[in-house]
Amino acid sequence: MYVAQLTLPERRAALALACLVAGLGLTMAVLGRDDLLGTHGALVIACGVVVAIVVMRGFYAPSPSPERLSSYYDDPTRAGIVFAMIWAIVAMAVGDWVAWLLVSPDLTFDAAWSSFGRLRPVHTSGVIFGFGGNALIATSFYVVQRTSRARLPDQVSPWFVLLGFNLFCILAASGYLMGITQSKEYAEPEWYADIWLVIVWVAYFGLYLRTLARRKEPHIYVSNWYYLAFILVVAVLHIVNNLAVPVSLGHAKSYSAFAGVQDAMTEWWYGHNAVAFFLTSGFLGMMYYFMPKRAGRPIFSYRLSIISFWGITFMYMWAGSHHLHYTALPQWVQTLGMTFSLMLLVPSWASATNALLTLNGAWHKVRDDATLRFMMTAAVFYGLTTFEGSFMAIRPVNSLSHYTDWTIGHVHAGALGWVALITFGSLYSIVPSLWGKRAMYSPRLVEVHYWLAIAGTLVYVISMWNSGIVQGLMWRTYNDSGTLAYSFVDSLVAMHPYYVMRAVGGLLFLIGTVVGAYNIWRTMRTPALAEIGDFAEAPARAAPTLAAAE
Amino acid sequence: MFGFHYRLERHALRFVIAVILVAGIGGFVEIAPLFTISETVEAAPDMRLYTPLEVAGRNIYMREGCYACHSQMIRTLRDDVERYGPYSLAVESKYDHPMLWGSKRTGPDLARIGGKYSDEWQVAHLQDPRAVVPESKMPSYAFLGRTPLKTSDLGLHLKALRKVGVPYTGEMVANAPADAYGQAAPDSPYAAGVAQRYGEATQVRAFMGRQGDPTEMDALVAYLQVLGRLTDVAKAQQAQAAE
């Protein structure tokens, strides 16, 4: 049905691109026939062929009416939301599974693919890129059109960006299971997947700029600053950190251009700023649009937005070295990292404050509307997590927290409490209108999802705080004779109850996500408003004369 | 300032350039000097290179995601040093493309695991961790012992490593598969060349207790047994400090 919206030249272009991708896959399959690269080549061929078949089947559908040009192009956003929810369920399920593996490590069936080490990146990449990335792409298309009062410039490049990005995610996740990894945390995909992502990302950047160039608003809205920073900086980080030399063009394996201490610094410059520009900047863009929109209140302070935006953009890039305290990294870099991490609290809290003060005058809505409450709670977790992050970057605190589960707790306070909650809030606020419905299928299920998500996050984070601090303290406890009081295994035994608790917390969060996905699916499937006859025209068809969010 | 921004946010390209400049400073100031300041990486004239078998083992370590639970970076903290040995120096990972310092210790640090346990212990532990350490949370890696090691393309691996700065000689590249075989088969004619090319301290022995075509287990154990033993600089430095 999406193909019918494409014009005939666009259908041709889409078909050509799909064939090109299949051709690339064929090249990979031939060059890498003696290696796992060949398997990935086959996978790429399959993806290209599937898209080609879909385009072919709609190829001779009637041309779309020219009226489409007077409305926003939301098909890729719809598909992106569906992809995001699928990735959310898969990746969170894998995450909870690996949590149980730490409770009961014999659940690996004596196979290679099922061990913790191979599944863990499936979880991390799946939630960060699969869930988070699809949500960001989908909402950025939605937001940039409305805040610019302009339609996306064409109908092929958004699909190229969305589907190309998902191909990258599939290559990443399937590669880990087969043992294809660079072993750089959060940058595990190998050289060919990395190059592909660069191509997709350039298209994404171009699409964004072309849409902005068509805008009818003189100013670029705050959300777009954040989305732009997300696209730009992630590109820079990705390219630099993934510089590598492949063993050969027929090998999936490559060797990083950097080694040792330089590699460590580059990796954590990347790793920390993936948090900053993927998981913070992009989602702040989401928050700056959907939260005021849902609350029916303007952003509290335009100046605070400016200060926090440039503060975050400037200072985050210095903070990565706090991942390397007390290591072989020169001390001057560690100190710089710590200093900027502390200063970073100012723009972070400026954003959180700006968000929460936006709700002034709308707190009754927060009470009654779980969707808005998702976003409010996300802003609170954003504030808490950024405070915790600055705190953990202090060298002596880090000597206790580093290498322990405290870090895992911190990451999940951000990932569950901030990233996932702001995403669910945003999705719940646009899913009904995108599918031409008045409201979500079940507001009660939104409420259920909210409480499951909150309970899951709290159980998870609190268990990891406990285990992390216990672990850190046990490692450094001395007995009266001046020797270490506990062996490493002693600390491992002490972790067991917390690992059970964490896995339960994760399960609660996962159930919430499944409830959310079910609710979204039912919303999509209920008869449209127009069919019921309540509205002559569904909101999704509204013309671009719609007021922008400012 | 706000007036300036009021104008800036009306031009997409200017905004883009501003973001790149503002975001670029931090990384540049922190990373670029690490390549130019010579004190960043200590001198270690006795530093050995990973043998082809150890490179293969290191690749298995990465493939299996061992770094997700094991760090290879002993910090300059008293309890870290007393638990794991002299703190890690930058030079010790100077040939590590990429580094495997890790970020989490679900299991213990492995920076100086080499020589701490016997080969038999390592093999038994990898095959069934809980047979050796009942409380362990580690998965079983028994399949490594059943999987023959692919050695035919190790020369290409060394070549790629040479491109990124590891000083492998042409002779090392040419003999990579034979050296991988010889290191785990001390009685074979290929064994002598390994010590000759990679130094007398190279550990040439049957890691799994049997000679012949090496398995992935041989490679991984060879790698684990060399961790922390490519140079003696860290130990020498600690001994010097103690005096």
From TrEMBL, chain A:
Domain Cytochrome oxidase subunit I profile: 48-550
Subcellular location(s) of the protein: Cell membrane
Catalytic activity: 4 Fe(II)-[cytochrome c] + O2 + 8 H(+)(in) = 4 Fe(III)-[cytochrome c] + 2 H2O + 4 H(+)(out)
Record flagged with keyword Transport: yes
Keyword Lyase found: no
CDD domains per record: cbb3_Oxidase_I
Cofactor binding mode and count: Binds 1 copper ion per subunit, denoted as copper B. Binds 2 heme groups per subunit, denoted as high- and low-spin.
Protein residues bound to heme b 1; low-spin: H123, H412
Binding site for Cu cation: H272, H322, H323
Cofactor: Cu(2+); heme; heme b
One Pfam family linked to the record: COX1
TM regions (residue ranges): 39-60, 81-103, 123-144, 156-179, 191-213, 225-249, 269-290, 302-319, 339-362, 374-395, 415-436, 448-465, 499-521
Membrane topology reported for the UniProt record: Multi-pass membrane protein
GO molecular function, one term: cytochrome-c oxidase activity
CC annotations in GO: plasma membrane
GO biological process, alphabetically ordered: electron transport coupled proton transport; oxidative phosphorylation; respiratory electron transport chain
Stated family: Belongs to the heme-copper respiratory oxidase family.
Protein name: cytochrome-c oxidase
Organism: Alsobacter soli
TrEMBL record, chain B:
Keyword vocabulary terms for this entry: Heme, Iron, Membrane, Metal-binding, Transmembrane, Transmembrane helix
Annotated Cytochrome c domain residues: 52-228
Entry-linked Pfam families: FixO (PF02433)
SUPFAM superfamilies given in the database record: Cytochrome c
Transmembrane stretches, start-end: 12-35
Keyword Zinc recorded: no
Protein name as it appears in the record: Cytochrome-c oxidase, cbb3-type subunit II
Organism: Alsobacter soli
Organism classification: Bacteria, Pseudomonadati, Pseudomonadota, Alphaproteobacteria, Hyphomicrobiales
